[in-house]
UniProtKB/TrEMBL annotation:
GO cellular component: serine/threonine protein kinase complex
GO terms, molecular function: ATP binding; protein kinase activity; protein serine/threonine kinase activator activity
Single biological process term from Gene Ontology: protein export from nucleus
Described function: Pseudokinase which, in complex with CAB39/MO25 (CAB39/MO25alpha or CAB39L/MO25beta), binds to and activates STK11/LKB1. Adopts a closed conformation typical of active protein kinases and binds STK11/LKB1 as a pseudosubstrate, promoting conformational change of STK11/LKB1 in an active conformation.
Protein name listed in UniProt: Protein kinase domain-containing protein
Family: Belongs to the protein kinase superfamily. STE Ser/Thr protein kinase family. STE20 subfamily.
Organism: Micrurus carvalhoi
Pfam families assigned: Pkinase (PF00069)
Boundaries of every Protein kinase domain copy: 1-258
InterPro entries documented for this protein: Kinase-like_dom_sf, Prot_kinase_dom, STRAD_A/B-like
């Protein structure tokens, strides 16, 4: 048989906003056709319950990998492979006129063979209105406070200038910091201080200066451009003794990404 992931939601306990988000997620999952975007295999209701069947992700999310294998942060090679898949899926969404608005490590899923899938489609918003693509949008959903560290200044500001796909790029940068450092920038800050820090200048990113050197990377090079090599890396990690964290240095290209 085939392993699958099953998500069951009690529809009677969902708010109207959550129901709209679930509907949006289901519709867009079937609309998008991209190798790096999670697709639902089946969606159905049974009484008050909504069942969503999707591919099984053996390594769960990038956030789970951080907690389990890389508490001090990942290597630049591994981060690059993970973000390559996520950004490929995100670029596809942007080309179709959608803003993701929920980019973070826990929404980047990894299958047993190392393929990367972007999930978290319930907050997507379309830039297309009446056949015209808008330069900015002004929809400001009620995000959970746990999501705030990843959100861009223009989305948090909620002013007349609105925001666009660039807000997702900001979230990618925060996610890169998250993967490199092992924890999320701004997470320990009071919410008001975090907002002021975001609005006044460059992103606060408390990470170590070092990362794994190329010679010490535990990731195989991807030949296809699709398989990230994460599966092989995780297999080695799980079957070996506790690995010592080697010294590391981030490349100028990685710093420029942030």
């Amino acid at each position: 048989g085939t392993l699958v992931a099953v998500r069951i939601t009690d529809l009677e306990r969902c708010s109207e906003e959550l129901l709209k988000a679930l509907q949006n997620e289901v519709i867009l999952s079937h609309f998008f056709r991209h190798p790096h975007i999670l697709t639902f295999w089946a969606v159905f209701t049974a009484g008050r319950w909504l069942w969503v069947i999707s591919p099984f992700m053996a390594y769960n999310s990038a956030s789970c990998l951080l907690r389990t294998y890389f508490p001090e942060g990942m290597s630049e090679a591994l981060i690059g492979n993970i973000l390559f898949g996520a950004i490929s899926g995100l670029n596809y969404m942007h080309q179709h006129g959608y803003i993701h608005r929920s980019i973070k490590a826990s929404h980047i899923l990894i299958s047993g063979d190392g393929l990367v899938y972007l999930s978290g489609l319930n907050h997507l918003y379309s830039l297309v209105n009446s056949g015209q693509q808008l330069k900015s949008v002004y929809d400001f959903p009620q995000f959970s406070t746990s999501m705030l560290p990843w959100l861009s200044p223009e989305l948090l500001r909620q002013d007349m200038h609105g925001y666009n796909v660039k807000s997702d790029i900001y979230s990618v940068g925060i996610t890169a910091c998250e993967l490199a450092n092992g924890h999320v920038p701004f997470q320990e800050m009071p919410r008001t201080q975090m907002l002021l820090q975001k609005l006044k200048g460059p992103s606060y990113c408390p990470w170590a200066i070092n990362t794994f050197s190329c010679g010490e990377s535990r990731i195989k090079n991807s030949q296809s451009g699709i398989d990230s090599g994460i599966g092989e890396s995780m297999t080695r990690t799980m079957t070996s003794e506790r690995l010592q964290t080697p010294s590391k240095t981030f490349s100028p290209a990685f710093h420029n990404l942030i």
